[in-house]
Specification:
Layout: H1 2-22, E1 24-26, E2 29-44, E3 47-51, E4 56-61, E5 68-69, E6 74-79, H2 81-117, H3 122-154, E7 157-159, E8 164-168, E9 176-177, E10 182-188, E11 191-198, E12 210-214, E13 223-231, E14 239-246, E15 257-273, E16 277-280, E17 283-290, E18 293-298, E19 300-304, E20 313-318, E21 325-327
Length: 329
């Protein structure tokens, strides 16, 4: 019985220690980014036009603005009446050449029989063989020409070059288009945030840096974080352009403006979870453990510095020192 009581007491002690450890925070100075608020736009990494490969009239339009398409999907059909007429003309010519080829084959076989019997000279046999070869080659040429026209008709189907969202459709059914003219523009689904930061911050903006977004901008709660994937080397209008990858940007609206906080340098400061700070009568306090005692110390709070490992990170300007142990109120 005594052993059981000892075990239960030990379990209670371990539980109390774990709770106590979970309810304390040791103050340590660290590098805090100097954040700057900039506006970014939701952009797609690539906007690809779906172009007509032949000229003609848009006979059928299968998409509209905002539609989602798959790679290889037919977005429109371009028709050219001249190609249909050429196809009919080639079919007639091929039919005539088939008749000539059949007659040449009959003449060649007759010449071979007569030559075997010694009735005609070798010259007549050679002429019949040449006529058969000419008819055969002409027949093959027209078939190949017909295949070209048939391929041109097939190319009247405008295919989506990539999977994504249709941004614009600059043509309508019945419109005349030229070869290479875009019928629709398609945005790939890998949406990014495109930042434009003043060029004085060019040296502090690097690939891999973390950016912060207010979750309310995207219809979510709390802060959201992303990573800069690419910093463009060309400065445009005095601004550095960079792309950041952020989860949950959506895949519909393109060009939406969102406020983003980026790092403009780092400095040394103290950051603690905001849950360890209490406010009484307009004064902020932190509860410190001094040996066996717990005392309330007034502090001067700075601004919130949310980060992935501490969503409620709060900068403390004064009142705390490195090594202080905070107790959760």
């Amino acid at each position: 019985m005594r052993r059981r009581t000892t075990i239960i007491a030990a379990l209670f002690a371990l539980s109390a220690q774990s709770v106590l450890a979970a309810e304390t925070f040791t103050v340590a100075p660290g590098a805090v980014p100097d954040e700057k608020a900039v506006f970014a736009t939701v952009e797609t990494a690539n906007v690809v036009p779906a172009r007509a490969r032949i000229g003609g009239t848009v006979a059928e339009l299968n998409v509209k603005d905002g539609d989602e398409v798959k790679q290889g999907q037919v977005v429109a059909t371009v028709g050219d009446e001249k190609l249909v007429l050429q196809m009919k003309s080639l079919d007639a010519q091929i039919a005539g050449l088939e008749a000539q080829l059949s007659q040449a084959d009959v003449n060649l076989k007759r010449a071979e029989d007569l030559f075997a019997k010694g009735t005609i000279p070798k010259t007549n046999l050679d002429q019949a063989q040449t006529a058969f070869n000419v008819a055969t080659n002409m027949h093959r040429s027209k078939i190949a020409e017909r295949s070209v026209v048939e391929q041109q008709l097939a190319e009247g189907k405008v295919l989506a070059p990539t999977a994504g969202r249709v941004l614009t459709v600059p043509v309508t059914a019945g419109a005349v288009v030229l070869p290479g003219e875009p019928v629709a523009t398609i945005a790939e689904k890998n949406f990014v945030l495109r930042l434009r930061v003043p060029e004085r911050h060019a040296t502090t903006l690097k690939t891999g840096d973390t950016v912060r977004i207010d979750g309310a901008e995207l219809g979510a709660n709390g802060a959201k974080f992303g990573t800069i994937q690419l910093v463009y080397p060309q400065i445009q209008d005095g601004r550095v352009v960079a792309d950041a990858k952020v989860a949950g940007l959506g895949d519909y609206f393109v060009g939406e403006r969102i406020r983003v906080w980026v790092s403009a340098g780092k400095r040394e400061s103290i950051v603690v979870p905001a849950s360890f700070i209490i406010t009484r009568f307009g004064v902020d306090y932190a509860r410190l453990r001094k040996g066996a005692e717990v005392i309330d110390v007034p502090v001067q709070r700075g601004r919130l510095q949310p980060r992935p490992d501490m969503p409620d990170a709060l900068e403390i300007l004064s009142g705390l020192n490195a090594g202080d142990v905070l107790v959760l109120p």
